Amino acid sequence: MSVKPDLEFIKYLKGAGGDTLKKCYQCATCSVMCPLSKDGSPFPRKEMIWSQWGLKENLIADPDVFLCHQCSDCSAYCPRGAKPGDVLGAIRAYAYTHYGWPGPLAKLASTAKGLPLLVGIPAVVIFIMWLLSSLIGVSGVHIPTSEEFASHGYTQFFGTWSFHWYAKNVFFILCFAGGSMAVAILSFFMGVTKLWKGMSENAGIKSNFRPSIVQFVTMFLWPAVVEIVTHKRFKECGNQRNRATGHLPLMFAFIGLAIVTCWSLFKQDVLGLFWSQFHGPLPITDPFKILGNVCAIALLFGIGVLWSNRKKAEQEKGSKGSFYDWFLIWLIAGLGATGLGAEVIRWLNIPTLGYLVYYMHLITIMMLFLYAPYTKMGHLVYRTVAMTFEKYRASSFAKDVLAE
Ligand code: SF4
Ligand code: SF4
Which residue has the higher pLDDT, 287 or 163? Predict the structure, then answer.
């Protein structure tokens, strides 16, 4: 077999945290120490040699790369200090950009150089929409008086209109949040399709979907989702066991905030059509408001734990932090801080500052949706797909159709 190294890819890996790549001498200690590596398909030793050889196509369609939970157990025991955990992290970051659509946006989200535009795009879009909202409806944009702010909070950020069947504020928020989500969903769909095809080809599986949809969901997808939600594999990590302490509340905070957002939309957009008292901000004693606040605190707690873990790993183990590692941490911290901050400022009734912080909060929401497929957030989908594929690959469905 002739090996065609991708020299650009090797250069990328070295620059993105895999600068110790060459030190690996294939002793396999990392594969033995990795708590998630399986006997039939061990990693990350093979990924280290593929990386040294620059076998990009093999690596970006290797499910094991996505199964890694970046616990750094392997790096801690590597006798050569080759940091395989960082190498796998760099490959994943490359894969998210590679699979991301549209390509220029995915590329922009992959480096710190793109940060001004990454913040600037949503900031400009939302600001223009805020100005445009003045052209429609009864009341356009203005900073509210203390009385208006106390009564409406942020529910008239984009003004009001006389069409009582649908709130103007919700319309504008859905325009940018829904648009961003649509781009992200399309990007994930295209990326997942390519990844599944690549994984199947590498594993020698000729037919992708021999099981029925029901069989696929119940036998492969659902068990993978259960493992993810319960953090079963996270808990197996020895070196950075407390990553689950930060990751778990973070995950439940997102689920809780999604429930609160859905309820708020249902209350305002559906119930509000028939009973006008359902319009307006939720009172502090409302169970969904309480859930939202608890989730915001859990989100800040979780991201605080992950932040300090990453800092500790960089200081103690010489693990190299990359833009890919830090961007999502900064973004989630910004999301939680501006969300809680906007609410506290509403209690204090300071309209101008409140509107400014709320505007920043909307920017972080749009960033989270729009850039999800290209940042570390992408692992939510790509790891789920890899875990599903891992179960599928081991099943009789895949074995029966193995290439000769
Ligand atoms: S990365 Fe380290 S532990 Fe793993 S095979 Fe290479 S030298 Fe051995
Ligand atoms: S970082 Fe952890 S999960 Fe990933 S390969 Fe290393 S030991 Fe395994």
Answer: 287
Tell me if 47 sits within 8 A of 59, measured CB to CB: yes
Distance 30 CA to ligand 1 centre (A): 5
Q: Which residues of 124-153 are buried (b: 16+ CB within 10 A; e: fewer)?
A: ebbeebbeebeeeeeebbeebeeeebeebb
CA distance 348 to 359: 17
For residue 300, the CA-to-ligand 2 centroid distance in Å is: 26
Q: To which residue do tokens 């030793």 refer? A: 45
Per-residue pLDDT tens digits for 221-231 = 999 999 988 87
Cα(59)–Cα(12) distance, rounded to whole angstroms? 13
Peptide bond into 44 cis (omega under 30): yes
Neighbours of 225 (CB within 10 A): 14
**Ligand 2 centroid to 339 CA: how many Å?**
34
Q: Is 30 in the pocket of ligand 1 (CB under 6 A)?
A: yes
Q: Read off the amino acid at residue 75.
A: S
Which residue's CA is minimally distant from atom 2 of ligand 2? Answer: 71
How confident is the model over 292-306, as pLDDT tens digits? 889 988 988 888 888
Q: What is the DSSP letter of 153?
A: T
42 in ligand 1 pocket by Cβ < 6 Å?
no
Structure tokens, 24: 């690996």
CA-nearest residue for atom 8, ligand 2, is: 34
CA distance 404 to 391: 21
